[in-house]
Amino acid sequence: MRLIETERLTKVYQREGRWFPSANDAVPAVDRVSLHVEKGETLGLVGESGSGKSTFARLLLGLETATEGRLLFGGEDVTRWGFKRLRTIRSRMQMVFQNSYSSFDPLFTVERIVGEPLSNYGGMAARKRRRVILESLDMVGLGAAYAERYPHELSGGQLQRVNIARALVFQPELLICDEPFSSLDFKLRRQILTLLEELKIRLGLSYLYITHDLSSVSRFCDRVAVMYKGQIVETLPAARIAEEALHPYTRALLDAVPVQDPRLRRSKTGRPVGEPALPHGESVIQGCRFCSRCPAAMPVCTTVEPALERKRPFHHAACHLYANEAEGKASQTFQIVKE
Ligand code: SF4
């Protein structure tokens, strides 16, 4: 069952400060994205900084209004719901932010921080509220003793546990984790990953896990969607990403993974060349958006935008290399072009 689903969801920003805005001043941060998260599934959303991952998360949470497309939650179209109505589903989706310390008020105790979302919604008796807060702290491995502490008295791992506890007070169905380990060392990352895995089983949670770190994806996620300049360029089962990724951009991301996970160790092929991603402002682009960096680019790539199409069971990619060709032949073409 699909918990949340988007259909060609688009968010376009207009550049400010122009007297006469043109089509080039429309900046598509999220461009026709169709994705879904199944109930109980962990979907990894990967891509470089500025690829549109966080804007996509904000669209799901109703913190941004979509320019086009549809958002469905539990099968219901919530795209045009107003602020009040959206509150009813917002408690069912919660966000775990990336930088714990800066997302907390240093003058608040842990109890107040974790209970903050409940205050925003109101209507809960003090005794029940305290019980819910302590239960959430307990679920993330922090006892009642932590309730009276302040952020500066906690370690990075404890702060991230508080962050997760805050997201759990509404007993959500979906947790959107935006780079949840970015400020943690390797050991703490493993601990928080394990905690999230345990919570998933215990509470029947679904996750949208946003990251630029592919090394954690194959362990933690069921499925991966790769985003480049606002578009999804590949989706496939996470366990198969190291061996079966097709899109040159995904392969380049894999090449850039520091090889802590030996399954992700691979030959240095397909690394993108040239300048980093074009600024989003250059939005009127013909053909493939990865064209200027792709070592396998062909003439057709400069004029025809590749569609996200099924290439194998449960595997979709947007790349002309694999269009209407047998898989083996396409791979061969890729090798030759690189040489
Ligand atoms: Fe490279 Fe062309 Fe595929 Fe784009 S469509 S990723 S430019 S080969």
From TrEMBL:
Domain ABC transporter: 4-254
The entry's keywords: ATP-binding, Nucleotide-binding, Transport
Keyword Protein biosynthesis: no
Transmembrane segments: none
GO MF terms held by the record: ATP binding; ATP hydrolysis activity
Classification via Pfam families: ABC_tran (PF00005), oligo_HPY (PF08352)
Alphabetical list of SMART domains matching this protein: AAA (SM00382)
SUPFAM superfamilies linked to this entry: P-loop containing nucleoside triphosphate hydrolases (SSF52540)
GO terms of biological process kind: peptide transport; transmembrane transport
Magnesium among keywords: no
Family: Belongs to the ABC transporter superfamily.
Record's protein name: Peptide ABC transporter ATPase
Organism: Paenibacillus tyrfis
